[in-house]
Amino acid sequence: LPVHVAAKLGMKNYFELIKSNQLSCKQQLSHVCQPEGCYPLHIAVESGNVDLVVYMIDCLQASLTVTDIRGQTPFHYAARTSPTMIAALACYDNEKSRINALSKDGYTPLFLSISSCKPTCTAALLKQGAVLNIMCNGRSPIHMAMLQSGNKLNEMIKTLVEASPDCIYQAEKQTGNSALHVAGNKQALNALLSVCPDINLNCRNNAGQTALHLHTYLNNLSCVVALYYHGADLNAKDTNGNTSLHIAVSAENESMTKALLVLGADPNIVNDNGHSPRHTAARLNVRGRELMRCLIIGGAIRCPIESSGCAATCSYRNADESDLSVQYTALNYLETVSVCKQEKCIKKVVEMAATGKKFDVLLSLDGGGIRGVILVQILLYIEAALKKPLISYVTWLAGTSTGGFLAAGLAKGMSLRDCQKIYLRMKDCLFEGRIRPYQSDAFEQLIKANIGETSKITDIVSPKLIITTVLAEKHPVQLHMFRNYTLPGDDNQCCTQCSYIPDIPLWKVLRCSSAAPTYFDSVDNKFVDGGLIANNPALDLLSEFERYKSCQEFSECNEEASVGCLLSIGTGRIPDMPIESLNLGFINVIDMVSAFKNLGYMVMDQVTAAEGRPVDRARSWCHCMGVPFFRFSTPMSKDYALDTKSDQDLIQMMWETLEYVVNERNEIARLVIRPELNL
């Protein structure tokens, strides 16, 4: 009808015309729009025309009590419109009866503003008398908010918590689920935990389940990852003694089982029935075989001798059976020569160490963006073999970009699990829902939050730390190394290639090393990502060690430096992919464009090369010095991007790494042989 069109378009003059005819005016305001089932006042409110709405109520006596086909009042419509509209309507609701009215769907205006993720409208409703203690369809306002998404979700949850700080402790009557349990997505969890960082992550529902238990059962991988990096207990038990890993295995959920294992869940915890996850998997059908393999890779052992009801794959009686076989590849002649040379180097160093000689252990960490989780996963396995923090053995440490970030974290005393959590959180904060280039300011704030705003690189006394970057203020660009030490006898503490700057903050050093072009801005229009020259800093670490040793000899320093081994960790080897065209002829424009693209990839690959020849050169140099060289880098199933956003991809990347290091366990055993000799 015309009255509905006028209300939609905000035609106040139309309503001024019908005002003179009181009977006609009342009839027109009572017309219901079909099929929507709403009145002209509803339409005017929804359109956001405050002047028209006030005129209709003041001059035309439009009623606030009218409800549409769903039982929604004008306040329900205003809840999704604007704070100004809410304030205008509130002036005519003296008893506050309409502002808290329930629709036929069981929603108050407050709940509609929450479901629409309109935090300013929510705040306006609360200011005008909306109450938080009304449950709608069994849910509290905070629980409704935890089911939403969008860039205003953080502000929404903050609004609710400020209005009622105790709302975060509200639980569903039937299930006892808290806000953490009912979260519909990772964004909601992160929003709640940013507003309430001290909330109990391990609170339980009526079934004794933590939020991690429930999200594991519901297969919410992103929520499981978020709860982990915020500090939830992976090994918490429910009322039956089951951990999240028990739940994942019982549900035959292979991907969740892998995720929990790479995040550090203990595969050998037993439930109240005395069953471990491996025991549970052994009793499953064909699907249980792959789960069994995953658990064995993750460190699951067989059941103790006194256990009963065990299948062959978990029984102690079959402990002589090999759970995992090592996959060997045939070596060519040069690889065989390299292996023999490595054995001689190891034997020589072990013999010298037995006489009391002390050696330096060099650790080099490649760049690779979010693929730094691969570095962490490899080091976790090595550290488990050492049964002692790896950093306690390392005397020289070099890192590029993401490797520099991990190096700084380890040097400052962070655990590898702490670093893993930082990577997972950083991915969500920097990359999720965004496109390149990413916000450099946000990156800097994250580094400061985790490394410290006032910490300096020179505050780290041990190990000797090198962080690489590229000085790009003039041609030709050159590698620049920040370090926490001075060369023996060197009075000039700042040089072109290296710098010992006592006052430079550590966060800025890391920012310089991680300023990858097209990902983040350069630092001071001067420094860019170290990966452009030294994505694998192993050779640069060796060069710096030899420079330090030469300065010792020149300055007649009593301290003697010798390398015990060089451990180089990579961020993954991408699979071989065919190149279709390299011809730059101008006959076929499409082929020419493809060729330019392929050549660009080739140049970038070689500029940032961390595998292949850089590894061969480092190995050859070490063997010439009689130094054992160890290199570990995961062969990946696909080329994971430096800014990988998917939790599924990230978990798969970490799982492939765990499979790789388990297969390389004999080589790792040779690395950690005789750790008491500082090897």
CATH topology label of the domain at 338-573 and 611-677:
Cytosolic phospholipase A2 catalytic domain
Poorly predicted tracts of residues: 675-679
Beta-strand fraction estimate: 5-15%
Task: Please state the average pLDDT score.
Answer: 85
Helix percent reads 40-55%
The tally of strands reads 8
Query: From the 3D coordinates, which CATH architecture of the domain at 338-573 and 611-677 would you assign?
Result: 3-Layer(aba) Sandwich
Note the overall shape. Answer: elongated
- How many angstroms separate the termini? 87 Å
* Major sheet attributes: 8 strands, mixed
**Structural Rg:** 32 Å
Highest-level CATH class of the domain at 338-573 and 611-677: Alpha Beta
Give me the number of helical elements: 31
CATH superfamily of the domain at 338-573 and 611-677: Cytosolic phospholipase A2 catalytic domain
Report the structural category.
alpha/beta
Describe this structure in words.
The protein is of the alpha/beta class and about 675 residues long. Among the domains are: about 1-130, Serine Threonine Protein Phosphatase 5, Tetratricopeptide repeat (Alpha Horseshoe), CATH 1.25.40; about 340-575 and about 610-675, Cytosolic phospholipase A2 catalytic domain. About 45% of the residues lie in helices and about 5% in strands. It contains 31 helices and eight strands. Strands 1, 2, 3, 4, 5, 6, 7 and 8 form an eight-stranded mixed sheet that branches. The model is unreliable at about 675-679 (pLDDT under 50).
